[in-house]
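Figure caption, in words: inputs first, then the predicted bound structure.
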Amino acid sequence: MNVFVTGGAGYIGSHVVRRLIEAGHRVRVYDNLSEGHAAAVPAETLFVGDLMDEDRLVEGLADGFDCVMHFAAHCYVGESMEAPEKYYRNNVVGSLRLLSAMRKAGAGRIVFSSSAATYGEPDEVPIPEDHPTRPINAYGQTKLDFEHALRYYAGAYGLGYVALRYFNAAGAAPDAHIGEDHDPETHLVPIVLEAALGRRDAVKIFGSDYPTPDGTCVRDYIHVWDLAQAHILAMEAIETGSGRTYNLGNGSGYSVREVIETARRVTGRKISAVDVPRRPGDPPALVASSRRIAQELGWTPEFPDLQTIIETAWRWHQAHPDGYGD
Ligand code: UDP
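Bound structure (uridine-5'-diphosphate present):
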């Protein structure tokens, strides 16, 4: 298929692009390179443009695409609480421009990168997809707002979509050629590994008074390579005029302290940690039930355990201590 990937030079997008190309699909990456890296994708796939620029989106989509995968978004919970306008502008306004450009260009199918942050503080874990959605941060709210738009556009304009609610993506491509490189980095796994490399001081543990077994937040870590595979299954299953929503996680929760401990084991390095106050917008525990995507699309994770996830991330960080170096 011909696939148009917004944000394809970013962390998750670039892994999906790799898997799409390996599976024989033709890809165009639409990215403004504000957070993505040109080196993360084959040069011939890159089409530089901004999500806010509808004319450029229409130009990019002009060659006839069977499916759009939409990753271009701001994705930091903490920042979204301090700068919500930035999040609404890009994640909602920019995403609506993408839908408008898709209608103009006749592209009718989309896989959307949504988030576990749409649930807020869950009543139960593992969380099924029909759990109420009550985001507690602006990031999650913008993802949920766009999911709602997709539902109405499907009904009115015949759009076909799949929304994938990611839990915590981590890890790197098994050959360690691409991996995670954010600037600034805010995600736990790369921060812990940078500390292992001696590139930062103690890891700050945001909150140790949560109602969880060791007082720190519990998350469900999913390998980015498994996440990427789910996008291909989703793309193949989309039906015109309707949509599906799927969680993507492994169904096991690990606390911040457990992640640090696992990274100490994997790396054999000293990783200091210090308790600091909670980060606004963090729910105590998020763990997925991914039964629906397993049953309906046959998704099976290849790297479900945290140790393997951290091992692949560690290989990337050791081979690329400066990330992409751009
Ligand atoms: N976290 C932390 N210290 C850090 C970064 C993250 O304690 O330097 C915690 C964060 O509060 C959350 C978990 O680690 O409970 C995962 O955070 P991350 O930002 O990686 O992903 P999120 O869950 O926000 O998508």
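The first helix runs from residue 11 to 22.
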